[in-house]
Design a protein that fits this description.
The chain is an alpha+beta fold. Helix content is 25%, strand content 34%. It contains ten helices and 17 strands. The longest helix is centred in the N-terminal third of the chain and has 15 residues, at 81-95.
Length: 375
């Protein structure tokens, strides 16, 4: 077995391998914002791991994150290629300054064995269009290329308040791709900004809504009203949960509706760097304090051992040393960092031992962490 960097000469074979594994690939294995690792077996490409250059919002700040996709040829499965690629990816992520890694797991046990753990959700809400409330008419119009910067700023204002969301920065994300959708309506504001927008695609039996984003309740209700105007043409809408306020507070959901949830897993690759990049709104209210950790991490040895999480003057940092009073598994760091689980849940799962109340106070659990993008 040979693990090496993916090259342009590998792209055709890598794309074919990923297409067999996933059904579709959403773009070539190498492109701006995406790199990869290759696994050779008997001189032939047998596995590929792609890494996208993303940034996730936590506490209002962005943290560099590598979004992983892993595929192994059917004949080569069960021979250690996937584990070897994941181990190599941890070193690659750290060297390139990506303090976090996230992925959607088809085989959770594999990724958990390397320190990834469930840390948030990607959700679609399916509901009858007749259940969409009617709002006041708003002056929406089709989006044009000149709206892209303002449209992205509108999304980023929302995303910065929802832990886990991507900032959708280039080159990994091309904001111009939205214009390829069937429906992209914008609500113009003042001085060229955008108050809100609706991005959707017409399916055979329902409208698939990728983003419904508004800066205020009037705009949100107006965009929902536009969505409801499809009633009679189509019976249902599938709405990706970009803004939980819209789908949780403003739609007329009946007692029963359908939510499709995909869980994403998070791995802290470099704790000091991740803590330094993250926003910690609760820290400004905390007195100087520290918690001593002893991290068990056999697959990222630079990450293992004793260190202190220190809160001082409204800031949070990680420094070496400490007593190691709180012993935790590498898997515990992802769900703690995202706010998906508190120390009590992690203790019951056997991933943490000791008093980690300070960690809970730091995160503050402001809501379910979520991604509105699939990769």
């Amino acid at each position: 077995m040979l693990i090496r960097e993916l090259t342009v000469d590998d792209v055709e074979d890598a794309d074919r391998l990923r297409r067999v594994a996933f059904g579709s690939i959403g773009g070539p294995s190498l492109r701006p914002g995406r790199r990869g690792l290759a696994a050779e077996l008997d001189g032939r490409l047998a596995g590929v791991l792609t890494i996208k250059d993303f940034h996730q919002f936590y506490g209002g700040s962005t943290v560099p994150m590598g979004g992983l996709g892993l595929a192994v040829a059917p004949h080569a499965r069960g021979r250690g290629l996937a584990g070897a690629l994941l181990d190599a990816s941890l070193r690659d992520l750290r060297e390139r300054g990506q303090a976090l890694s996230a992925l959607y797991a088809t085989v959770p046990a594999l990724y958990r064995s390397r320190g990834w753990e469930r840390a948030g959700v990607h959700e679609w809400l399916d509901l009858p269009l007749a259940r969409v409330p009617a709002g006041a008419r708003i002056d929406a119009r089709p989006a044009v290329a000149g709206d892209l910067s303002a449209l992205h700023a509108c999304y980023a204002d929302l995303a910065s308040t929802v832990d886990g969301m991507l900032d959708r920065s280039p080159p990994a994300v091309d904001v111009a791709d939205v214009l390829a959708l069937d429906v992209v309506s914008v609500v113009p504001g003042h001085d060229g900004d955008v108050r809100g927008y609706l991005a959707a695609e017409r399916g055979v039996d329902r409208l698939r809504v990728f983003d419904l984003v508004g800066r205020d309740v009037t705009t949100q209700l107006g965009l929902l009203s536009e969505l409801g105007s499809w009633s009679g043409v189509l019976d249902r809408a599938a709405v990706r949960v970009t803004d939980p306020a819209v789908t949780g507070l403003l739609t007329d959901q009946a007692v029963e509706f359908t939510v499709t949830t995909s869980a994403w897993l998070l791995r802290v690759v470099d704790l000091p760097a991740a803590v330094a990049a993250r926003g910690w709104p609760a820290a400004r209210w905390l007195r100087p304090a520290a918690v001593d950790l002893d991290d068990v991490d056999e697959h990222a040895p630079w990450h293992a051992g004793r260190r202190r999480v220190v809160v001082e003057d409204g800031r949070v940092r990680v420094e070496p040393g400490g007593s190691g009073a709180v012993r935790l598994h590498a898997r515990a760091l992802g769900p703690w960092f995202s706010g998906m689980q508190d120390s009590h849940a992690l203790r019951r799962a056997g991933l943490l031992d000791g008093d980690a109340a300070l960690l809970d106070r730091l995160v503050g659990a402001p809501g379910v962490p979520r991604l509105a993008d699939f990769f």
